[in-house]
Write a structure and sequence with these properties.
Layout: E1 4-8, E2 11-15, E3 19-22, E4 25-28, E5 34-36, E6 60-75, E7 80-92, E8 103-106, E9 119-122, E10 124-129, E11 137-142, E12 146-158, E13 170-179, E14 187-191, E15 198-199, E16 209-223, E17 226-239, H1 242-259, H2 270-293, H3 304-337, H4 346-370, H5 392-411, H6 417-444
Parallel strand pairs: 6-14, 6-15
Antiparallel strand pairs: 1-2, 3-4, 4-5, 6-7, 7-12, 8-11, 9-13, 10-12, 11-12, 13-17, 16-17
Helix pairs in contact: 1-2, 1-3, 2-3, 3-6
Length: 445
């Protein structure tokens, strides 16, 4: 059985012959005659790893492809993502051409003896090359001088996120590869097969996101030291909103609906209505704090979920204020009725109604007299301001007095029980309208 060793920079590769080589020459194991291994002399003679292929001439064309093994985490607070990728680079070095049509997979340690591109990941915060059990690198040499160089890398890359529509947002992230020292006069970057150069990303299963689509770009980075080639993988991530609907949107909506229960409880049940109002307000506050705890470092954003929680809190607080207004008006009315209580007949009832009306009018009048607007006393009756004997400043006072009288009369609650009656209709109606505008805006605009 014949065997042959192909020596590459002092290291020998096993080939089917009986001879042994050293530094590009072959020696017979049993004799003294020596011949060169055809086609491999140029691998060791005159090779300089510090000079790129075609040095001083045309740029080296480097074709790349990617396999996305995983995207382990996407952080909104740090605005980055962590991915494990298989980066494959191909280029042709005419100094490594040999005869034949075979390819050889060399020991990864031989990379230190070859010229390789100085590719780096733009916007990378932390990166490392896997080295278990050995450095996860691959070097393969083809007969036409083409070199395949593959790496397994885990990197954390910055991704600028717009969280204004969180959690109904779609984020666009990039993975950018660029030459560090060689400008476009020395190297050019291309994708090996366009969009088909990227694999694995369509099979990813992420906890909060779904990969919508991705595409590749070829660009240049203009720096002070020159123009550098850059390859871009851009992909869009759509957040899965169902989790947030179950965790935040549904509980907050139910709390708003719970606050409406107080409208069906009589005004005299002070403990019941107060308990419902205070409990829903505190529960809503706790829910708001909990929803923001996971994004504590991005509080500068007014997110969609913050807007919805603010709307729910406003409706709950409004229901509590509604009871305070209705109860105060009811107590004022009862206080006015108190002196007129007693057994009455039909005639007495009519007189009582007249007296109550008079008392209410007198109460309103006394209340209005306490309000001053630029030292103007407000009377309970409109005054005819067209009297010719009145001076100009008196007419102005008269007009303002009548305006204030109309405004106060407009906001005066005549029947406190109607407050709950109208609230039963208005609160749900306005809440539904606000929800329609909210979801339409954040889902379609």
């Amino acid at each position: 059985m014949f065997c042959r060793y192909f020596c590459f920079f002092g290291l020998c590769l096993f080939l089917p012959t009986q001879r042994r080589c050293s530094l590009g020459h072959v020696s017979n194991l049993h004799g003294s005659d020596t011949t060169s291994l055809p086609g491999f002399e140029n691998l060791t003679m005159g090779y300089n790893k510090y000079l790129r292929p075609y040095f001083g001439g045309e740029p080296v064309q480097i074709a790349m492809s990617l396999d996305i093994a995983s995207i382990s985490s996407i952080s909104e607070s740090d605005m980055d993502y962590t991915a494990t990728i298989y980066l494959r680079q191909r280029w042709t070095d005419p100094r490594l051409v040999f005869h034949g049509n075979k390819s050889f997979t060399l020991d990864a340690r031989l990379v230190e003896l070859l010229w390789v591109p100085d590719t780096y990941i733009v916007e990378s915060k932390r990166s490392f090359l896997h080295d278990v059990t050995v450095g996860n690198r691959l070097i393969r040499l083809f007969s036409n001088g083409t070199i395949l160089y593959a790496l397994r890398i885990t990197t954390t890359v910055a991704c600028n996120m717009d969280l204004s529509k969180y959690p109904m947002d779609t984020q666009t992230c990039r993975l950018q590869l660029e030459s560090w020292g060689y400008d476009e006069n020395d190297v050019t970057f291309t994708w090996l097969r366009g969009n088909d150069s990227v694999h694995g990303i369509e099979k990813l299963r992420l906890s909060q996101y779904t990969v919508e689509h991705y595409y590749t770009l070829v660009s240049k980075s203009q720096q002070e030291t020159g123009s550098y080639p850059r390859l871009i993988l851009q992909f869009e991530l759509r957040r899965n909103v169902l989790y947030f609907i179950l965790e935040t949107y549904v509980p907050s909506t139910l709390l708003v609906m719970l606050s409406w229960v107080s409208f069906w409880i009589t005004l005299d049940s002070v403990p019941a209505r107060t308990c419902i109002g205070v409990t829903t307000v505190l529960s809503m506050t706790t829910l708001m704090i909990g929803s923001r705890s996971s994004l504590s470092k991005t509080n500068c954003f007014i997110k969609a979920i913050d807007v919805y929680l603010g709307i729910c809190f406003s409706f709950i607080f409004g229901a509590l204020v509604e009871y305070a207004v209705a109860h105060y008006s009811s107590s004022q009315k009862c206080a006015a009725k108190a002196p007129q209580e007693g057994p009455v007949n039909e005639l007495t009832k009519e007189l009582e109604e007249v007296n109550i009306t008079n008392i209410l009018n007198s109460s309103i009048a006394s209340y209005k007299r306490k309000i001053s607007f630029t030292s103007i006393e407000i009377s309970s009756d409109n005054v005819n301001c067209s009297d010719l004997t009145m001076k100009t400043h008196e007419k102005i006072k008269c007009v303002l007095r009548n305006k204030m009288h109309r405004i106060i009369g407009y906001f005066t609650i005549q029947n406190p029980s109607n407050v709950d009656h109208y609230s039963k209709l208005l609160f749900p109606l306005f809440f539904m309208l606000v929800n329609v505008f909210y979801w339409a805006y954040y889902l379609y605009f």
